[in-house]
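re the bet — no i am not wrong, look at it urself. input seq straight from the record:
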Amino acid sequence: MKTLLKCLICGASVFTVPLVAAQTAAQSYPDKPIRLIAPSSAGGPVDVIARIVAQGWAEVLGQQIVIDNRAGAAGLIGAEMVAKAAPDGYTLLLGFSGPLVIVPQINVATPYDPLKDFAPISLAASAPYVLLVHPGVAAKTVKELVAMAKAQPGKLNFASGGTGVGIHMAGELFNLAAGVRITHVPYKGAGPGMTALLGGEVDMMFNGLSSALPHVKTGKLRALAVGGDKRSPLMPDLPTVAESGYQFNTSGWYGPLAPKDTPRAIIAKLHSTLVKALSAPPIRSRLTDIAVEVIGSTPQEYANRLREEMAVWGKVVAAAGLKGKQVN
């Protein structure tokens, strides 16, 4: 009996020591700068949102958060870096639909499982995409654009930040919903895609309203419709996609994740501090000013969102014939 009792005590110690170590690590965390991977080029909506969120989050955490832009493969490169990083809370990913729920269903060789290789922290923000055309395109409304596309199948083209990212899939949704064939031209990030649109290399593009607004105001681009279920207060005269006669959602969502096996105590600390940062008026105001809505969630709600969106986008990928296509 004494031997059995001694073994039970030893066994309990085996489980207690790692738990205490994890709790101790969480108490001192973070004691050095955190790297937040933004899997996009500088200047795109992912980058802009990452920088605003990181600033407020860093103030609450009391530690610097450094943005590391890793564009390429529709976000896959940056996401893979985080999936394979040490699970210590010092390398995080600002996730969005491209690398988490779309690219894995296009690229059969995706080197990570979005549902198993990440620990969701919280959804942070959502932002509508806006349908933009170069001023050289005669269409002034969505219906006029559709009429042009139907009259010249395959002649019009649209830019994106890479095959499989949200703004690419918005274009594919547009093709399916309107029954048109507008050719996709992928770029290495939303920023280069926008540059191409401004230069007239492509005819149209879906992009974040925050990135598009300055160019729309100066007349360098024309906005035809905004995604989401309501008009943007920044452009109240611009109709929604639904008001233009087409029923599909063109909004993006964003939220940080950590590598799997990151201690729960660290995830909890990251979650609580992020929620606090997002509730601060200065951060909410900065995001609202660029038409980004603060949403927030629990880690479990974020995980559920990933599963739900994988089912939705899986159907779009199949309908658009994108399975097995190369992402860039």
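see?? The chain has two domains: 18-126+252-319, 127-226. told u. also The chain has eleven helices and eleven strands. so pay up
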